[in-house]
Amino acid sequence: MAKLQDRSPASGADSEDSGDGLPCCPPLTAPDLSGADARTMATMFKALGEPIRVLLFSRVASHPDGEVCVCDLGDLGVGQSTVSHHLKKLRDAGLVVSERRGTWVFYRVAPGVLARMGAITG
C-alpha cells in the first residue's frame, strides 16, 4: 500500500507536482466554468452579499410548497418596501422568479439555480 505524503504548503511539496508525477491537489470541479457562467454566478453571489437577501432567498428556497407569497415571508425586521426592493434584486440576479396572482406576488427559486450553485462547490 502506498504511503500518503503530506502535501500541505508547509511540507514543501510543489503545488503543481508532488514529485511522483501526480498533481498535488485534484481539481475541485470539472469542467471549469466558462467566462459567461462565471459572470452569471458572480451576479448571483453579489446579490446574496446582503444578509437580508440571503434570508429572503433561504425562506423562498426552503418553503415546503416550493413557492411563497410575499405576504407569508414573515417579519424580517424591515418594512415592506425594503423587502420588495431586495426581492427585486434577487429577481434581477436570476435567483428567484415571481408570479402575480391577483393582488399577491408569489416567489420561487429560479429553475436550475440551486444545481448551478452546488455544481461549483464540488
Compute the separation of the termini in Å. Answer: 28 Å
Note the total helix count.
4
> Regions with pLDDT < 50 over 5+ consecutive residues?
1-9, 11-15
Mean pLDDT: 81
Q: Which quaternary structure do these chains form?
A: single chain
Q: Main β-sheet, in a few words?
A: 3 strands, antiparallel
**What is the tally of beta strands?**
3
Outline type: elongated
Give me the side-by-side strand order of the main sheet. 1-3-2
How would you sum up this structure, described in words?
The protein has 122 residues and is an alpha+beta fold. The protein has a domain at 35-119: Arc Repressor Mutant, subunit A (Orthogonal Bundle). The protein has four helices and three strands; from the N terminus they run H-H-E-H-E-E-H. The protein has helices spanning 35-47, 51-62, 80-92, 113-119, and strands spanning 68-69, 96-101, 104-109. It has a three-stranded antiparallel β-sheet. A hairpin with a 2-residue loop joins strand 2 (96-101) and strand 3. Helix 2 crosses helix 3. The radius of gyration is 21 Å and the shape is elongated.
